[in-house]
Amino acid sequence: MTEGFPLGHARLAVGGLDLANPLWLAPLAGVTVPAVRAFFRRLGVALTHTEMVSAAGIVMSNKKTEAMVASPDGRDRPLVMQLFGDDPLLVERGARRALAVGGFDALGLNMACPMPKVFRKGSGARLLEVPQRAREMVLRLSDLGLPLWVKLRKTTALHPLATEDFAAALIEAGADHLTLHGRTAAQRYEGVADREAVLSLARAFPGRVSASGDVFSVEAIRSYLDGGCVGVFLARGILRDPFLVPRALAALGYDVDESLLVPAPERELDLLMEMGRALLDQEGERFALVLLKRFVSCMFKGFTGASAFRRAVAVEMTWEGLSSRLIEGRSLFRYETLREGCLPSGPVPPSGARKESV
Ligand SMILES: Cc1cc2nc3c(=O)[nH]c(=O)nc-3n(C[C@H](O)[C@H](O)[C@H](O)COP(=O)(O)O)c2cc1C
């Protein structure tokens, strides 16, 4: 019987790391570059991940891959560097090389990716089919002196081991922490994530398991934590609604900067602008535009003028144009319409928490 996640709990000792809260930015290929990690740190996540990094790429001293394991911002810690690969020795060599060139606090190992270019080559969720090889990978990485975090998916009747037995083998081999995405590899990102499968694993290995899958609301976060998970990986939910982070932290009883809780497009645009400048600087104009448009396309829902604003941003092809739109946006929105699901009915309060049922 779980007692529920303690409200306002201070710090957490999880998987060999000291963490300020249980909300963590998931590894997201093509997204979790340093500027995006810094953005979500500002919003309150206690842990970030790199994108998944190819062990083969880093062994070959591929410059792009090496850049992925560096942490240019000393405030972006604790950071998990997630590796993927098919061969235990290669993954170990990749980890050793990453340790030599990077700055991070834990090694992550991907046993969850279902995408063909990873899966077909024997990496990611393919490792669920070969428990011995997965175990050997964990044995090798757990010897390198940093905590080891493994992310996996649910297994099926076609796999050699049930999810819980596979997890037990990884823990026995030295994994410090496991995150279960409650979907099978065949599901990719479709269908509903199996919350009960995640909670069942959390009950089997208390203090060792965090959750991933369909984290789109404070309610989903609460149910994973109340059910025994030690943390929650935030992924598509915070790409759609980054301010879910401070809302959830406030609901869990953590201190949150009040200005992040009030629906304030000016503040949100300022933070986007800050991230945009860093993206431009670190990743180049093309990447900065793609990512900022992706965020803007989902934000500001419920505010008068939001649709026209999003359309105007979508057609900008240069940083100059897009940044001008963001600056204009600061005086564009009015609070006439309430944000769906975020605020109580009635007049919009001048300040105070954005409410969401928990
Ligand atoms: C764009 C994108 C990139 C992702 N990249 C990775 C990755 O590099 N490594 C990984 O373990 N999972 C990756 N994932 C999976 C997420 O970390 C997460 O487990 C998944 O999205 C389920 O959570 P959600 O349903 O709340 O989005 C990715 C997901 C998305 C949408």
Automatic annotation (TrEMBL):
The UniProt keywords, alphabetically, are: Flavoprotein, FMN, Nucleotide-binding, Oxidoreductase, tRNA processing
InterPro entries noted in UniProt? Aldolase_TIM, DUS-like_FMN-bd, DUS_fam
UniProt domain DUS-like FMN-binding: residue ranges = 25-313
Cofactor(s) it depends on:
FMN
GO molecular function terms noted in the UniProt entry: flavin adenine dinucleotide binding; RNA binding; tRNA dihydrouridine synthase activity
Tree of life domain: Bacteria
Catalytic residues identified in the record: C113
Q: Name one Pfam family in it.
A: Dus
Q: What is its EC number?
A: 1.3.1.-
Q: Give binding positions for FMN.
A: Q82, K151, H181, A235, R236
Keyword tRNA processing listed? The answer is: yes
* Protein function: Catalyzes the synthesis of 5,6-dihydrouridine (D), a modified base found in the D-loop of most tRNAs, via the reduction of the C5-C6 double bond in target uridines.
Instruction: Tell me the PANTHER family matching this sequence.
Output: TRNA-DIHYDROURIDINE(47) SYNTHASE [NAD(P)(+)]-LIKE
What family, per the record? Belongs to the dus family.
| Protein name (database record) | tRNA-dihydrouridine synthase
